[in-house]
Amino acid sequence: MSGCKAEHCPCGAVCPLQVALKRIGGKWKIPILCVLSSGEGIRYNELMKKVTGITNTMLASSLKELEKDGLITRVQYNEMPIRVEYFITEKSLSLMPAMQMLAQWGME
Fold it and tell me: How far apart are CA 39 and CA 32, in angstroms?
């Protein structure tokens, strides 16, 4: 990685680092994953409160992308009114140590 330049990636044609950053990149995906990292199911409105500053549109689209990429799970319960909760997946939990290392690097 030390010799990585924009025009040359030592990883080959498809850079795995760019793939990973595309899935978790952007302003809102990491905060959403951090909130969900407790492992407990969280409802949409609760997420809205915990991810400060996010709009309805951005939360909805970020959740759809995270679900599509297998980083979160959406569970809809057959109740009236319908209840939906979001959970972090094992795939995302395996990402947490790397995110903690990046956080530590950011503090330094």
Answer: 12
CATH number, domain containing residue 74: 1.10.10.10
Q: How far is CA 71 from CA 6, 53, 81, in A?
A: 27, 22, 26
- The total number of structural domains in the chain stands at 1
What is the percentage of the chain residues whose pLDDT exceeds 90?
56
Question: Taking a C-beta distance cutoff of 8 angstroms, is the pair 44, 64 a contact?
Answer: no
In a domain, 53, yes or no: yes
In the prediction, which pLDDT does 69 show?
93
Chain-centroid distance of CA 62 in Å reads 8
- Residue in the block written with tokens 């407990």: 40
